[in-house]
Design goal:
The protein is an alpha/beta fold. The protein folds into three domains: about 230 residues, Rossmann fold (3-Layer(aba) Sandwich), CATH 3.40.50; about 170 residues, P-loop containing nucleotide triphosphate hydrolases (Rossmann fold, 3-Layer(aba) Sandwich), CATH 3.40.50.300; about 80 residues, no CATH class. About 35% of the residues lie in helices and about 25% in strands. The chain is built from 17 helices and 22 strands. The protein has a six-stranded mixed sheet with strand order 6-7-8-3-9-10, sandwiched between helices. Strands 16-19-20-13-21-22 form a six-stranded mixed sheet, with helices on both faces. A four-stranded antiparallel sheet has the order 2-1-4-5, covered by helices on one side. The longest helix is centred in the last third of the chain and has 17 residues. The chain is globular, with a radius of gyration of 24 Å. The structure holds adenosine-5'-triphosphate (ATP) and magnesium ion. Adenosine-5'-triphosphate binds next to β2 and α1. The site of magnesium ion has 4 residues, from α1.
Length: about 500
């Protein structure tokens, strides 16, 4: 998509910007020019400094050094409020809406021109109209907690449009969307650019950048590598600019023969936190050396399915049979012992212990057995040895001995988590969105780890919202919609289009 009326005048310019956190240079001597009427993509590996740069523009962080000009006028922001007043707003990676308020109330919240008494009727009408005119339909009366992630994102964007921002910053907006929602968002972005606004678009997905942006700025290690017109840059070139080397994302190779069935799931029902059936009659099998992908928009039962399988939640009915043994009601520890490994979605919440060192985290699940414990004592040297061995073999970078694991970048956290899990030599590996938010280099590494498990004969259940990933790694695909498996297909029959429609609840006619 090109042909926006880019008039060339600068909306925002940053020069020689530095920003450090506790001595870590997140941005160093960064130059950035944003033109009016353009979609400008910001690319870089995990930790390259993209969110930091965006947060400086949005007034959340203050630069340690450097200058900023907004429409040619030297400016400093003390808070996001200042930035909004200057017409710059940001949709963060983690949303900031108030869940208990309605969509309309969230739009009005903190609006400088609205007092305490707001005409609800008018507000609702405005919300609907604004939503429709930008292809972001919302129900103004719905409470935010009731909305899907995609809908919440629409509200975040509308909130900024309602404040008539001239610069809209979207930090990895497509990470939480279906392909169709993503395409709609791209239309909205182009529309905004067409009106002379500017959009900053952060993404790790090169084909998205290629599709929607006019120009690209690449950051590496906190510094600007350069800016290019999107039309002049092939995805391959952009990847090279980001990581400083050539890379190719791994995809699975055709299977020669499949092994025995290692996991059988029969008519499984698992409840949500609120006691509703979140997984409804799910049945499927996984064979040794097979990757079965579960596609679906987040919130359609993925979490409960994973919990039900690994013993974090006891299914209300149905069966989970691991290698011939019924483990439906067994506890987590038994699941681990019998051969389940689990890579959860939130790496620092449930996967890793944020405050422990990397070495200790790597030993966490093995610690009950020798050589890590003798009698009731833990053996520190054994922890250390295992740690440094795994750090080496799995190429976990940035480890500082003695410091907590939470300081690692997203990609390295994920490598640590997978290393720990696959070292248990599982029969079945359940991985939820293992490369979500990871850059191309880290994604390559994690995908290779998953494919290595497949080659070793592990049955893999890959639960993901990332269709590119599902298509690249899965032998078979299932689609989960409102707790039910609504589609099944071999990888060869699957396309993003077909999966996307099923994910949106559209039934296939035979
Ligand atoms: N609030 C903070 N406190 C301490 N360190 C931070 C903070 N925010 C960012 N950093 C560090 O600054 C560097 C740049 O981080 P930033 O979040 O800007 O990267 P990013 O390019 O957005 O990465 P990602 O693709 O993972 O979102 C990283 O090393 C990060 O650990
Ligand atoms: Mg970021």
């Amino acid at each position: 998509m090109t042909g926006a009326p880019v008039d060339g005048t600068l909306a925002v310019e940053l020069r020689n910007v530095d920003k450090a956190f506790y001595g870590v240079k997140a941005n160093e001597d960064v130059d950035f020019q944003l033109r009016r009427g353009e979609v400008h993509a910001l690319l870089g590996e995990n930790g390259a400094g993209k969110s930091t740069l965006c947060s400086i523009l949005a007034g959340l962080y203050r630069a340690d050094a450097g200058e900023m000009e907004v429409e040619g006028v030297p400016t400093t922001f003390k808070s996001p409020k200042d930035a909004l007043a200057a017409g710059i707003g940001m949709v963060y990676q983690h949303f900031r809406l108030v869940p208990n308020l309605t969509v309309a109330e969230n739009l009005a919240l903190g609006h400088p021109k609205l007092g305490l008494r707001v005409d609800q009727k008018q507000l609702h009408a405005e919300a609907v109209e604004l939503g429709e005119s930008y292809g972001l339909p919302v129900d103004p009366a719905a409470r935010v907690w009731q909305l899907s992630v995609g809908e919440q994102q629409r509200v975040e964007i509308l909130k900024l449009l309602y404040r008539e921002v001239k610069v809209l910053i979207l930090d990895e907006p497509t990470a939480v969307l279906t392909p169709q929602e993503g395409q709609q968002l791209f239309k909205t972005m182009r529309q905004m650019a067409g009106e002379g606004r500017s959009v900053i678009f952060v993404s790790h997905k090169l084909h998205e950048v290629k599709q929607v942006s006019d120009r690209v700025t690449v950051l590496r290690g906190g510094k600007t590598v350069g800016g290019v017109d999107t039309a002049d840059a092939e995805p391959r070139d952009l990847a090279r600019m980001m990581v400083g080397r050539d890379l190719e994302l791994p995809t699975r190779e055709q299977q020669e023969s499949l092994g025995e069935v290692v996991l059988t799931v029969n008519n499984l029902n698992v409840q949500s936190d609120r006691g509703l059936d979140a997984v409804n009659g799910a049945s499927f099998e996984i064979r040794a050396g097979e990757v079965v992908g579960i596609a679906g928009v987040s919130g359609n039962g993925q979490r409960e399915l994973a919990y039900g399988l690994v013993g974090l939640r006891t299914p209300t009915s149905g069966q989970v049979i691991l290698d011939g043994e019924d483990v439906t009601s067994a506890d987590v520890l038994t699941h681990v012992k019998k051969g389940f490994a689990y890579v959860p979605q939130s790496r620092l919440g449930m996967g890793l212990a944020p405050g422990l060192t990397t070495e200790d985290n790597l030993a966490l699940k093995a610690f009950r057995d020798p050589p890590y414990s003798r009698g009731r004592r833990l053996v520190a040297s054994a922890f250390k040895d295992r740690g440094s061995d795994l750090i080496d073999r799995y190429d976990i970078r940035g480890v500082q001995p003695g410091l907590p694991i939470r300081l690692l970048s997203g990609g390295n956290l994920q490598k640590a988590l997978i290393a720990r899990e696959v070292e248990l030599v599982p029969k079945v590996l359940i991985a939820r969105s293992p490369t979500r938010g990871l850059d191309v280099g880290a994604t390559e590494a994690v995908r290779n780890l998953v494919l290595a498990e497949r080659a070793r004969g592990t049955g893999v259940l890959l639960i993901s919202e990332d269709l590119d990933e599902l298509l690249a790694l899965s032998d078979r695909l299932l689609v989960l919609y409102e707790g039910e498996i609504v589609g099944r297909m071999a990888a060869e029959e699957a396309t993003a289009e077909r999966l996307g429609l099923l994910m949106a609840g559209q039934k296939e006619t035979a």
